[in-house]
Amino acid sequence: MDLGFMQEQLPLYIEAAKLTLHMAVLGIAFAILVGLMASMVRYFNVPVLKQIAGVYIELSRNTPLLIQLFFLYFGLPKLGIVISAEGCAVIGLAFLGGSYMSEAFRSGLDNVSQLQIQSALSLGMKKSQVFFCIILPQAVSNSIPAFCANIIFLIKETSLFSAVALADLMFVTKDLIGIYYKTDEALFMLVVAYLVLLLPISIVCTFLERGMRYAEYGD
């Protein structure tokens, strides 16, 4: 291991990590929004929109993110639609993540007891009050494990952003290997960079899952 080389290239990895995290945060935020909307459409059986949401989920989950990025970055310009590399990264991650978040939210919604809903309605609560005060909080709590797993999965998927010339961690790593042939050092720094990004999130998710479990069932 060439420690001098690793120390020299450290600033590049820090900047790449910042860009990777920035793109991941934006993509995941939009994925949560898309997933919540799609899950609500399917939960309430909204005509037409339910079928559209179903097609979107199947299309998103059964096509690789790399193909989606290629379509956005290389395909759309053929139709006169040009999107920056950053825009393609965010849209692609949101498109992929939205379907996974939708299934996580839908699972949480389906696990809410119908007895609680019927009891709330019998007490005179409006349907909107029942949803926002009873159904949604429990659905979010039930969805935490899948939700956290999806976040970690989507952050790891950012390694494909280099395919659209975005200077993320993978792009910097491949660039350094191609220029200096320092494969071991570059890959080691890549692994460390992803550990630094993902390990704190994994730890927070673990404590969050435990907190939600204790709040629901007691210690």
Characterization of the model:
The protein is an all-alpha fold. It has one domain (3-217): MetI-like fold. 81% of the residues lie in helices and 0% in strands. The model has no long low-confidence stretch (mean pLDDT 88).
Structure summary:
With 219 residues, the protein is an all-alpha fold. It contains eight helices and no strands. The protein has helices at residues 3-43, 49-61, 65-75, 85-110, 114-122, 127-157, 169-180, 183-217.
Key words describing this protein structure:
219 residues; single chain; MetI-like fold; mainly alpha; 0% strand
Give the C-level CATH assignment: Mainly Alpha
Quaternary structure classification: single chain
Low-confidence stretches: none
CATH superfamily: MetI-like
* Radius of gyration over all CA atoms, rounded: 21 Å
Overall shape: flat
Number of helical stretches of at least 4 residues: 8
Kindly identify the CATH topology: MetI-like fold
Question: What's the total number of strands?
Answer: 0
- Helical content (DSSP H or I, runs of 4+): over 70%
Q: What is the structural class?
A: mainly alpha
The biggest beta sheet is recorded as: none
Beta-strand content estimate: under 5%
Number of structural domains: 1
